[in-house]
């Protein structure tokens, strides 16, 4: 049995760890709420853009747009969205599992330090990595999405796909591969973006006659890149909410385990102290009897 001094030191160490994990849990919970609030704040903007694209879809021939043109997939473009730090449970490991399942030629574009380290360690083709803060500023995500769109239009990559953890609720984060480009149709893309933003699609249609200036195809060509940027931004917001949620749950589990361990160590300490006292009493009694 360990000495009472060693047990006391271990109890103190575990209590310090519990204090740290509790603080990290509170910080992660605060950041998760902010990430969820940011996602909700963007819903009106996403809804307005969806309405504009819906109105344009009935006025143009979709086949002319390069985002809608289907082509042979020779090289996939994968945007991997991970965390910068650890201590978030199996979140990153689940994303890396999806990466390892990709056997076809692919080029990787990474958001998050953990993802960049994994791609470099596994010697996969990484074109660029981008930094996105916890606030998830739109211009930071826009830099990544515009770079990938430019590579897509140049023919360097034939698809744009996003591997990210989708925030479902505080306890569940789904690792997903979300295709972005090329689009099958405007209607499917609008429905997918509305579902990701949590917008309930209205069943009513606007049958008013509209006049577009300079023309409907030109408006669509100018609007589509903005909508793609906004869609990828929504995915990154979901990934950030998943990160903070997973970290909060992991830190809460660590705190609870530390509390349980403190209880077990306290019981062991009391047993050791009681054994020491009993031993001293026996020694005193034995010496008195011998005398």
List the main descriptive attributes of the protein structure presented here:
291 residues; alpha/beta; Pyruvate Kinase, Chain: A, domain 1; five-stranded mixed beta sheet; 7 helices; 60% helix; 12% strand; elongated
Describe what you observe in this structure.
This protein is an alpha/beta fold and 291 residues long. It has helices spanning 4-41, 43-57, 91-100, 113-121, 138-154, 186-197, 216-290; strands spanning 76-81, 106-111, 126-130, 160-167, 173-181. A five-stranded mixed sheet has the order 3-2-1-4-5, with helices on both faces. Strand 2 (106-111), helix 4 and strand 3 form a beta-alpha-beta unit. Helix 2 (43-57) runs antiparallel to helix 6 (186-197), helix 2 (43-57) packs antiparallel against helix 7 and helix 5 (138-154) crosses helix 7 (216-290). The chain is elongated and about 115 Å long.
- Overall pLDDT: 82
Instruction: List low-pLDDT spans.
Output: none
What is the level-2 CATH architecture name?
Answer: 3-Layer(aba) Sandwich
Reading the helices and strands in chain order gives HHEHEHEHEEHH
Question: Which overall shape is indicated by the principal axes computed on the Cα atoms?
Answer: elongated
Task: Estimate percent helicity.
Answer: 55-70%
CATH structural class: Alpha Beta
Write down how many β-strands occur, each being a DSSP E stretch of 2 or more residues.
Answer: 5
Work out the strand percent: 5-15%
Largest sheet: 5 strands, mixed
Query: What Rg, in angstroms, do the CA atoms define?
Result: 28 Å
Strand order of the largest sheet: 3-2-1-4-5
First and last CA, distance: 31 Å
Name given to the CATH homologous superfamily: ATP synthase, F1 complex, gamma subunit
Count of helices? 7
Output the structural class: alpha/beta
**Overall tally of structural domains:** 1
**CATH-derived topology:** Pyruvate Kinase, Chain: A, domain 1
């Amino acid at each position: 049995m360990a000495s009472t001094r060693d047990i006391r030191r271990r109890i103190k160490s575990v209590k310090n760890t519990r204090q740290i994990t509790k603080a990290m849990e509170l910080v992660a919970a605060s950041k998760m709420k902010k990430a969820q609030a940011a996602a909700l704040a963007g819903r009106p903007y996403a809804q307005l853009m969806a309405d504009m694209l819906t109105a344009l879809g009935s006025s143009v021939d979709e086949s002319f747009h390069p985002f809608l043109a289907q082509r042979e997939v020779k090289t996939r473009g994968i945007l991997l969205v991970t965390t910068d730090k650890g201590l978030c449970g199996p979140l990153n490991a689940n994303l890396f599992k999806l990466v390892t399942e990709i056997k076809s030629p692919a080029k990787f574009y990474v958001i998050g330090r953990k993802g960049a380290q994994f791609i470099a360690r596994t010697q996969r083709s990484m074109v660029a990595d981008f930094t996105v803060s916890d606030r998830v500023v739109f211009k930071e995500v826009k830099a990544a999405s515009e770079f990938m769109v430019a590579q897509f239009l140049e023919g360097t990559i034939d698809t744009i796909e996003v591997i990210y953890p989708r925030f479902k609720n505080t306890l569940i984060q789904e690792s997903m591969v979300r295709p972005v480009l090329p689009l099958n149709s405007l209607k499917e893309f609008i429905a997918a973006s509305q579902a990701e933003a949590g917008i309930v699609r209205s069943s009513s249609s606007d049958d008013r006659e509209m006049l577009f200036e300079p023309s409907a195809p030109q408006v669509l060509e100018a609007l589509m890149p903005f909508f793609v940027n906004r869609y990828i931004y929504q995915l990154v917001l979901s990934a950030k909410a998943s990160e903070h949620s997973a970290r909060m749950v992991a830190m809460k589990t660590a705190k609870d385990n530390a509390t349980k361990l403190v209880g077990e160590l306290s019981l062991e300490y009391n047993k050791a102290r009681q054994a020491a006292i009993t031993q001293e009493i026996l020694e005193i009694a034995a010496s008195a009897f011998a005398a």
